[in-house]
Specification:
Elements lengths: L1 H18 L8 E9 L7 E7 L4 E6 L15 E4 L11 E6 L5 E9 L5 E5 L27 E5 L6 E7 L9 E6 L4 E6 L3
This protein binds 2-acetamido-2-deoxy-beta-D-glucopyranose (NAG) (3 copies).
Length: 193
């Protein structure tokens, strides 16, 4: 009886997979970070590292369940493989203006030489040429660490972005890089005891 149940479940599962005949292929090698913007009904930006090493941005105009058009035309490479560590963690934060309007995504990952790096979606900027990106601060990551988080903070005066990682300068704990919107500068703080 138990076995029959298992077999029935397995068949149902396979049938469920086969039923999804119309799907968009995605070959992500690690983390997938997703953020919602305020356009449409559940418009979603999805970022992941593709098998060829580049970071890809996928855009859907609704949640998958909502059957609206999934804008596959926006399946684009946003950071080339030579700027991305293979197997990098990926995280993303959404910014909002003080008026509450969507103000773009900031995506964080590691470069091949272990530098905390940033892609800014609304200006499509990344790599060493992006003067605004955290990449230019050359904050080094502990070799082998895949710890990474990021979020926007527009409730704390002056604060805008907080990015947590394991800094080569302070291994064995979390360091936050914070972007101060008044000074437009990044700085580092280690988790206090
Ligand atoms: C890497 O793969 C992604 C996802 O399939 C694709 O969009 C991108 O064009 C590829 N990059 C190169 C340089 O071929
Ligand atoms: C990181 O560690 C790997 C494996 O131990 C080693 O091959 C590599 O040279 C190290 N990289 C750096 C930048 O120290
Ligand atoms: C950040 O600072 C800029 C320039 O001073 C300002 O226009 C913007 O509204 C600020 N953003 C937030 C979220 O406070």
């Amino acid at each position: 009886m138990q076995l029959l149940k298992l077999v029935a479940t397995a068949i149902a599962f396979i049938a469920g997979v086969e039923a999804a005949a119309n799907f968009f292929p995605v070959d992500a090698v690690g983390d997938i970070a997703a953020v919602r913007d305020d356009l449409g009904k559940g418009a979603t930006h999805i970022y992941y590292q593709a098998r060829n090493g580049s970071i890809v941005r996928l855009y859907t105009s609704t949640a998958f369940v909502q059957n609206g058009p999934q804008d596959r035309g926006s399946h684009t490479e946003v950071v080339p493989a030579n700027e991305v560590m293979y197997g990098t963690p990926i995280t993303a934060a959404t910014l909002w203006t003080p008026a509450g309007d969507f103000n773009g995504n900031h995506v964080y990952y590691y470069s091949r030489d272990g530098i905390l790096s940033e892609y800014i979606n609304n200006i499509q900027a990344h790599g060493p040429s992006c003067t605004q990106c955290i990449t230019n601060q050359r904050f080094g990551v502990v070799n082998g660490s895949v710890a990474l988080y990021a979020f926007a903070d527009n409730k704390t005066p002056g604060m805008l972005l907080r990015v947590g990682f394991e800094s080569a300068g302070s291994p064995g704990t979390i360091t936050e890089a914070t972007f101060n919107n008044n000074t437009q500068k990044w700085s580092l703080s280690v988790l206090p005891n």
